[in-house]
């Protein structure tokens, strides 16, 4: 467990970002000159397990005590480094992952796309609406859901994966599964990315499958299992506890000669978190840039939106989803897992245009 954690903050965008980077008054975030920062928020875990934080300008770093400064400088090098392409996806601009749940019981679209033709039509619509990745899952992991057998899960998704790969060869396909046999079969028919919501904890063989095949994967965080994860989840500090989880898993991958450049991190909004946990993670999401991996968030239609808006809740929660996406965009998040691709892509395009206009 770390003592200090480094979060880039006080961001600038577009022309202003480029100008400040050129004059060396700010640094690029993840190698992207369209977003720059000139301050750091440094968190410190203290003995009573509470967290404190201090803001530092980049100019102040040289005057910080040696122990703290050495960690900040190491983190800073990682924060500004360019993220390499994953499955031919360039993270210089925000990307959308379209959700395709081929299940009867997913929390917002269960039963809609069980039929392979309907699933294909939905994938086609999402790709035409701007999705760079299609995330296909055959098992619901909503709160309270039960594990299904691997045969049923595979039967639901295999034909759809094949037809999408055949008709959209340039679109990356992500496989949303916790089971190593499903991962292996998916990789054989062309899946580009593995997305395991359990963070490779559900099936001990999953890590071996991913590392042996050197296939990119999304490192998710989930406390508990879908069946139990929302029963009084607890953290000493949700943000920093999840950071520690990511760092430990990434280091394990490095020891197995698996490159960090193949990992995307997802803090798992709503997976074993209450409203305060979700808000803590989202408000400080840029902390995860010091891991050196692209960041994905999946806030689409999530229940935390309902907990905030109460009587103003809607079935699709498009407004709340878009608000969380745009905040993530301001914090340099590179990838968004989305149900309503066209509407959210529209919001991103308009927001980015305004943000980057001088």
CATH topology of the largest domain: TIM Barrel
How many structural domains in the coordinates? 2
Count of runs of 4 or more consecutive helical residues: 11
Could you say which overall geometry the principal axes of the C-alpha atoms support? Answer: globular
**CATH homology group of the largest domain:** Dihydropteroate synthase-like
Radius of gyration: 20 Å
Strand residue percentage:
15-25%
- Determine and state the CATH class of the largest domain: Alpha Beta
Key features of this structure:
37% helix; globular; 4-stranded antiparallel sheet; 11 helices; 12 strands; alpha/beta; 358 residues; TIM Barrel; 2 domains; 8-stranded parallel sheet
Outline the structure in words:
The model has no long low-confidence stretch (mean pLDDT 92). The protein is globular and about 60 Å long. The strands form 2 sheets. Strands 10-9-8-7-6-5-12-11 form an 8-stranded parallel sheet. Strands 1, 2, 3 and 4 form a 4-stranded antiparallel sheet that branches. It has helices at residues 14-22, 66-80, 116-128, 150-167, 180-188, 206-213, 238-255, 275-283, 303-309, 318-330, 341-355; strands spanning 4-13, 27-29, 32-45, 51-57, 95-101, 133-137, 172-176, 193-196, 217-220, 263-266, 296-297, 335-338. It folds into 2 domains: 4-80, no CATH class; 95-355, Alpha-Beta Barrel (TIM Barrel). The protein contains 11 helices and 12 strands. With 358 residues, the chain is of the alpha/beta class. β3 and β4 (51-57) form a beta hairpin.
